[in-house]
Amino acid sequence: MLFMFACFGGGCPQLDSYYFTERGERIPLAPEPLIARLPQTLLSRGALAIIAHVDRAFSYAFEDVMGTPQAQLLRTPLELLAKGKRVGLAADPLNLQWSALAAQLGMALGGNSPGDQPRNALIANLYIARDDARNYVVLGDPAVRLRTELMQP
Q1: Which residues pair with 21 in a beta bridge?
Q2: Where do the domains of the chain lie?
Q3: How far apart are CA 110 and CA 86, in angstroms?
Q4: Which of 23, 91, 146, 153 is most buried (most C-beta within 10 Å)?
């Protein structure tokens, strides 16, 4: 099992999530969405599951939108894996972070309509943090777990 936190470590979306043309159109990154070669090779050579990041990775996995350190977001999946929990369950805190940030963004937008530019830096940071949290993927078997009963204390 691997946990790959890196820009495009798990793959690349077809369209950029963060940069737009002057007309507000998303910029193409690839002819079609793709899974990175490293996880493909690792899975073909014995890795059973990989949690990886698709697209650019930002510091929001290490700090909140106000810049306060928060190492727990990446620590929790590793702790769950070390306790013998399944990979899919270990990745769940990343999904919960995405949904929490999406709710915060919705509340912060208030009167903003979908086509409006963000009104302030906090809202812009919430957009980026939300999309950053959304971009984790489980490749391989989400039911795989470490056999912790075989480990020495």
Answers
A1: none
A2: 2-150
A3: 38
A4: 91
